[in-house]
Structure formats: structure tokens, C-alpha cells
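Quick one, T. Sequence first:
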Amino acid sequence: MSISLIAHRCRTSDRTAGAARGVDELAQLVAKRLGREPRAIGSPSEPRVADWREDLVNSRGCLLEAGGQVDDALSGNNVPVLLAGECSIALTTLKAALKNRPDAKVLWFDAHGDFNTPETSPSAYLGGMALAGACGVWEAGLADPIDAERVVLVGGRDLDPRERELLDESAVTVIGASPDEIVQIQNAIERAPLFVHLDLDVMGPESFHTTQVPAPGGLAAAELYDLLEAITEECEVIGFEVTGFDAPEDEAERQRAASVAVHVLDPLLEAVQRGARVSN
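C-alpha cells:
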């Protein structure tokens, strides 16, 4: 077993230029950490505020490629590590992960629920509908839905009113943003294999402010690190994806933020390296 490092550079529903910069910055650091070169998918295009319909059509190939990369890795007995600008990729990646490992659960870290639909979203932002689309709450036309019972959402605190209702009506397990929630998280995942989705805005802006939509509260960087460390000591990580690094133009500021991001990723990186060593 090996690790497939994928830098997903093409635009899905990115609304800031920092999203593509964030992928490139993290790809360099994660590549160095893992000792392997990333596979670059696509090229950045002009970010813009677009309606979900436009983004869904224009980024269809890019979204399918994200799921295809996860599928290729797992079907080849490899571990996908996918770096992307924002969460729309989950419309295809979650299904790819659970298709190959139906015993796995999705552990979704995010300040937002991403559980809006085209009817409920105040912003018409495709990324804010990603988890709902993956669970079949609305039809994106990209992949079959996953079972919402397989999803554990951690850290969601900035939820629209109807989005909160949809989550309450769903089978998704929702857990707050606190280091005290570790027992609840462990009970929810039941030591199952995990595919982890980590939107870096699960951290509060006091620890990590370079995200597209910072939300007050949330985890400190050290708290997120400790949670991931505790979880990965108990569970197999079959792969993970990282989104939400809105990297600033200033090089020094960008590097400082990237170092925080890579630090909190260390438990996940160690987990996939450990798995590869055991398999080999």
C-alpha cells in the first residue's frame, strides 16, 4: 500500500484567489512531509461568485475527477490524500470512499454544516450544499448518495436556520466544536475505518483566520491536533481530504498559516504513513 497525494487545483466553486494558492502551498509542505510528489489535477481559473447551477455545470469534470482520484487510489489499495480549495469535491469523493470501503465512516470537520440545498441556501454557494448533496438530500447528478448514518459532523457552529433543521431531520451525527467532545466522537465512530474531511475553518479565527468563511468560536489548533491524534490512535484512516485554506498573497503570512495547517494535519499524515508501513 502506498499514499496517493493529489493536489486538486481546478476551480469548483471557489470564490477567492486564495483557495488555489492554499492548495499549492499545502501541496509543497505535505509532499515534503510524506516524501512524495503530488499529482496535480487541473489548473486554477478565475475565482468568482457564481450561482450553484453555473458552478455545478462548469466544474462537473473537475468534481468527477476528484471522486475518480479517490476511487483509483482506494481500488488500487492506496490511501488518498486530497488537497482542494473548497468542499464541493465531497459531492463525489465521499461516495468513492464508501464504495471501496463500505465499513468506513465519514468524519467531517467543518465550522459549517454544508447541508443546505438549492432551496434553502441564502448564498447559492455550491460548497455550502456539498454534504447534503453527497447524502442525497438534493440531486447533484454526480454520484449515488451515501448513507447519512455513516457521517459524523464535528464542529458545525455556523448553520443557517433551515440547514440546521435539515441536519436535525437527517441521520447525520452532529457533535459540537469542543475538545471535551472526544468521548462523544469516539462513541459515534465506533472504531470504524475513517475517511476524514477536514475543512480548516473548523478552527476558530483566533487560531486560523485564513479561511474563506471564518466562524467565531471553534477549536484552537492545539485542540484540533489533540482530537485528531486521539482518533487516529484508535481508527484506521483510509484517506482524507483537506479544504478551506484561503492563502494570503503575502508570502510570510501565507507560510505562517500553512505551518499551522500542516501541524494540525500531522496526526492524519502519521496515520496514513503508519498504515502504509504496516501494509508493506
